Amino acid sequence: MNDKKRLSVFLNGLIAENPVLVLVLGTCPTLAQTGSVIAALSMGIAATLVLLCSNVVISLLRKVIPDTVRIPCYIVVIAGFVTVVQLLMHAYLPDLYEMMGVYLALIVVNCIILGRAEMFARKNGVLDSALDGLGMGLGFLIALLAMATIREVLGAGSFAGIEIPFLVDYRIPILVQAPGGFLVFGILIAVINMIGPKAGEAKRRNFSCAGCPSAAVCGKGSCSEKNEETNAKDKED
């Protein structure tokens, strides 16, 4: 890839292919860890580190891993990095470790990380895979921080645990509860769709299921054929 394409790979994860607000992946930790800014920041950084490292390793091993067992191999690699992050946080950041609870371990099965391994890292070089992992990780982090800021500021009258005096008496407690998480999540997705509906739709179409082993038998026509038809229509328009 040239520098322009590499920049595009990095930037795609921030907005155009934001894993949370556009592709709607990783919703479990997104809803669970955005009640406070500190928890969201911790989850975002941890997931970004795991995503970056796993993308690099999987790209390095892409010609060695047998195709028939690639998914289990990816999970082993991801689990290894998650374990390292867990041990480091347990040793040096015990309060954050307790705050994140089971969701830290669940990074292993985060569909964003496994999805990027399957869709990108196994097909591209180390540098490109690192940029993809970093871009997607930062996109995940940005989405978490946006949700957490809205929920904590309006729902708890504080930011990162620091009380905001003029908002204390005007808190909306439901925002830091589960229903509030779904509400803010939906609003942010709507905002992203309003900002770039055509670009977002095109990205979702192209993302599709190119790496899916069942792509050729999922209907009357394959996913790739349907995408080619859709892309052809878009070009004609």
Please provide the count of β strands: 2
Uncertain segments: 202-207, 220-227
Q: Using only CA atoms, what is the Rg? A: 19 Å
Structural class designation? mainly alpha
Distance between the termini: 28 Å
> What's the number of helices?
11
Shape: globular
Q: What's the average pLDDT?
A: 84
The largest sheet is: 2 strands, antiparallel
Report the portion of residues in β strands. under 5%
Task: Give the neighbour order of strands across the main sheet.
Answer: 1-2
Fraction of residues in helices?
Answer: 55-70%
Task: Describe the protein's architecture and organization.
With 237 residues, the chain is mainly alpha-helical. 67% of the residues lie in helices and 2% in strands. It has eleven helices and two strands. It has helices at 3-12, 27-32, 37-60, 70-92, 94-100, 102-105, 111-121, 126-156, 178-195, 197-207, 223-236; strands at residues 158-159, 162-163. Strands 1-2 form a two-stranded antiparallel ribbon. Strand 1 and strand 2 form a beta hairpin. Helix 4 (70-92) crosses helix 7. The longest helix has 31 residues, at 126-156. Mean pLDDT is 84; it is low at 202-207 and 220-227.
